[in-house]
User: What shape does this take?
Amino acid sequence: MLSTPADNFDESLTTVSKSKNEAGLAPLLLTVLELLRQLMEAQVIRRMEENLLSESELERAADSIQKLEAQILHLCQTFEVDPAELNVNLGDFGTLLPQSGSYYPGETGSRPSVLELLDRLLNTGVVLDGEIDLGLAQLDLIHAKLRLVLTSKPI
Assistant: This one.
């Protein structure tokens, strides 16, 4: 029996859907998106509590965060990724994201997640300063200097 282009296309779709769960890129990207979404949500909460947002800014931020969450859930469904699987356990470092409902910005937990640590870091601010030399055959070919200020507050 001869196979038609439609048969080949159907076989390709079956192969793609079987490999969705095996491909680590989609869950990784969705995890990073969820980390950024929760980090932005924490920053909105901090600014709301400090009365730094107007009513319209708060409404826009809340609406945007809800839409972003819906998009992430839609992408999870599309790529057949369980949203609960987006929280990665990093061993001794704890988890990437806090357990649902276990973190509120400004409150400290007994075992903070990476998200909580990033939120605290952004709230207090940090300066990174460094240099990197890359070379080959005892020749310095690339010299990079890095000076980075990371904070959620205007400088």
